[in-house]
Amino acid sequence: ERSVGQFDTSELDLQLAAIERAGKQVILSVGAIKNFGYPEFFVPDHQLERPLSEGSLVTPSTHPALLAGAIGFIRKVVERYRDRASIVAWQVEHEAVDPLGVEHSWRLAAEFVQRELDAIRDADPSHPVMMNGFLPTSSLVRLSQWWRTRDQGDSLAVAARVADIVGIDYYPRHGLLALGPRTLYLDGGGLPWQKVLTKALVAGIRLRGKRLMVSEGQAEPWEAVTLPPNPGHKAMFSCRPADAIKNYNAAMEWSAPDAPIYAYLFWGADYWVLRDRSGDPSYMKAIARILAEA
C-alpha cells in the first residue's frame, strides 16, 4: 500500500503465478501489522501518525485508525486472492501478540487480532486461518516469553483459542551472545523436561480441535547476528545440515495417527541457495533427503 487506497500487487501476483506453475500450495500471510521477514513490522507511514509506544498494548480503542487500515488492507488482499487455486489457508499477523524480539516491546492485543481474524472470515469463510507462535525450547526463553505476555497469553495460546490451524515456529538452538570468535548458544530442545512441556502444549492444542503444523522449522543458522554467516567449508553450530534433519524428525514426533501434522514448512531456503552457490550443497542435500524419505 504505497499511499492511501493505492495497492500494488504486481510482485505478489508474479510469485503466485510461479507457485501455481510449479503446482504448489500457499498459506498467504496477510499481515497487516506484523509479518515474517526482518524487521517484521511493515505499517506504511501514512497509516501510523506516530510510532507505537514501547511497552504498550495496541488495542482497538487505543489505535482505531490503525485497526481500520489493517482491516481494509486485509480485505483487499483476501478478496483479490481468495479464488486462487493455490491458496489453501490464510495467516493473520506473525507471532501475533508477542513483542518483536528485542527490537520493540509493544504488542498487539488479542482483541485487535480477533478483529483482523473476523475480517478474514467475513471476506472468505471457505478457507481456514492459521496463526503462528514461537515455541520456547529453553527455560530462559520460556520464562521470558511468559513474563512478557502474561496478561493475555503468548501467540501460541491465543492461536489455540481463536485460529483454525496453530503454527509452531520451532528453533531448538540459536545464538545468544557472540564474544569474539566464540558464541554462547541456547540449546534446550532435547532436554527431557522441555520435551514434556512441548508434548503438553501439543496435546492442549489438539484438545481444542485445532490442526497443528510447523510454520517455521529451523533449517538455517540463527546466530547472534542478523544475517547468518556463510563460512567456507564450515557450518554454523546453531543449525548444521544434519540439524535440519534432526529438527524435522523431532517435530514429526508430535504427529499422531488420528491427528497428523498438517504441514511442515522449512525456514531457510534462501540460505541453502546461498550456500549452494558458494560451493556447499550440503543444506540442499539434507532437505532433498527429507523430501525423498518423508
Q: Write down the overall geometry.
A: globular
Going by helix content, strand content and strand pairing, the class is alpha/beta
Total number of β-strand segments?
10
Query: Percent range for helical residues?
Result: 25-40%
Q: What does the radius of gyration come to?
A: 19 Å
Textual characterization of the structure:
With 294 residues, the protein is of the alpha/beta class. Helix content is 38%, strand content 17%. The protein has helices at residues 10-21, 64-81, 110-123, 139-148, 155-162, 192-207, 241-252, 269-277, 282-293; strands spanning 26-29, 57-58, 87-91, 107-108, 129-134, 165-170, 173-179, 182-187, 211-218, 264-267. The strands form three sheets. A six-stranded parallel sheet has the order 1-3-5-6-9-10.
Tag the structure with descriptive keywords.
single chain; 294 residues; alpha/beta; six-stranded parallel sheet; two-stranded parallel sheet; 9 helices; 10 strands
What's this model, at a glance?
This protein is of the alpha/beta class and 294 residues long. It is built from 9 helices and 10 strands. 38% of the residues lie in helices and 17% in strands.
